[in-house]
Amino acid sequence: MVKEIGEKSLVRKMIPNVFKAAVWGIITYVFVGYLPTLLFPMDFLAFGFNQLFDLFVGIAVFFAVITNLFSGTILGYAFSIARGLVMIIYFIFALDGGIISLSMPISEVTASFVVDVKAFLTILVLVNLLGIGKNLLQVTSFLAKKVEANQLRQ
Amino acid sequence: MKQAIRALSIAIIILWIFIIAFAATAVYSVMNLDIGFEETQFFSLNEDVVVSLPFFINNNGYYDISELNVTTRMTDYNGTLLSVSETFVPLVASGSNVETAHNISMDLSDMSMEHTELFFNDSSFELDAFIALNFANVIPAQVSINMTVPWGAYFSNLSVGEIFVRSYNTTHSEVVIPVSFENHSYFDIVGTMQLEVYNNEDELVTSGQTNLNVSSSYGYDEQVKTYSSLEDVSKLTESGEVYFVFETSMFTVERWVTYG
Q: In angstroms, rounded to a whole number, what is the distance separating the alpha carbons of residues B160 and B238?
């Protein structure tokens, strides 16, 4: 009986989170995945960058859903930190460590392009690290509040 | 702690707005770059042959393009360096248009001494083009292109036909030397052709000179007439060699060609 009530209250607690996660998932998809394709034609992203873009959309939507689904719990913060780390790895991988090299045929010759985006990558990594730092502070605050509440109850 | 978290959140949002705005405007700017090449021009300057590649950059984007450097390196089929040319554009400001030309020059007088074969045989050059620039002052980019450029010889298929002798007067004979070649180069040949005919014992039989005016992509097929004493003409054998000296304002080249 007690277990049933506990499950019901958990489901009741989860419903707003599920709704929030769905809304954030849609919003993230629209802003990250849909609007850029309207602004910039996707054939511009040739040479496998299309797949990287899809992967970015996937990561962004997944973490938007999962962090909102577990928001208000320690798991929510854990997923936020994970998002920061995954994004850092993704950017390093997508930007080839800061040096993007690609070859493409132009009429009868092959042109090799090398673009040095190390400065841009550094900023992206630093912003994500800042995000991880913020999440760690939030976790500390969250745990401190929980401990405080427990101590007050005792 | 709450205030610190709030401050960090605001800072992160502002930074993300800047990053997204920069990325979007940078992509937009690159897409709105109008780069084009105009018709290639060939001309001679002193002793140099100049291949001029006019190009324009219309920067319709939001960011400047700085330190644009175009370097071309031309080598022959053996990898011997023939020419290195460089064009530097310090700045193509946002909203501005730059028109310039990259000139690839080759010193033909040097070439006539070191790469004589290129004057008589068609060949191809390896052209390595290297373009470096700095986009928005933070993103350096480089483009390298390797291509093969055909080279047309000035005196392609130079040959001497059957030399024959006509009587001219009591002391001299007219020696007729049929000479032919094709001008495969991009330039007209305006100059002189000196020739000396040697028999199979390396004795000079006759010599002469004629003016040349052969347009690009045209052939030369003429009978060059020289006059020699009867004694010298008698030395003419069925086979031998003709020594050519071609002289124009840009180069002087020599060539031995067998006849008979």
A: 12
